[in-house]
Amino acid sequence: MEEVPDVDFKQIWSSLAPSNVKSFVWRLMLNRVQTKTNLRRRHVIRDDQSLACSFCQLQDETSDHLFCTCAFSMAIWRMVLGWFGVSIALPSLVKALFVQFPVFGRCSSKREALVTVWMATCWSLWLMRNRVIFDNGELDAGLVLDLIQVRSWHWIKAKRVNFQNSFYEWKLSPLACLDSL
Length: 181
Ligand SMILES: [Zn+2]
Prior knowledge:
mainly alpha
């Protein structure tokens, strides 16, 4: 069993994401997001209803599966990491991913932006999951990556005046853009 790391909740609140996303990630860290497994626990989903993951339909939809070990989500994390030109072994716990993701940011302002990208990734996965369930949306990894890039760019730009890169520059070389922070 992988060890569950301690999450520094201050990193969530000091990130550059909007407050509704901060509160979503905070609930995710406490395993209080309304995944099917959590809805079953609260008797919102009945015993005869499926708990199958909204992305792959192969395993129960827990937080760790939906945001971490599902093949669809893993592909998204690899795309996000590839966008930054790094590759790390993906852990199987969402908390471990939160702790490990921003390590390639060398200073605290860079890490703060990387935590923001991390939050944009989880938020975009969650919205895609809801689109699949409620709007019969099709899974589209390319669209999710686009939205992660757009959201993180908007969020960082809104809160950091010295971040003046265009969206095109952000999409092309995000680490270089973070040098201005
Ligand atoms: Zn899955």
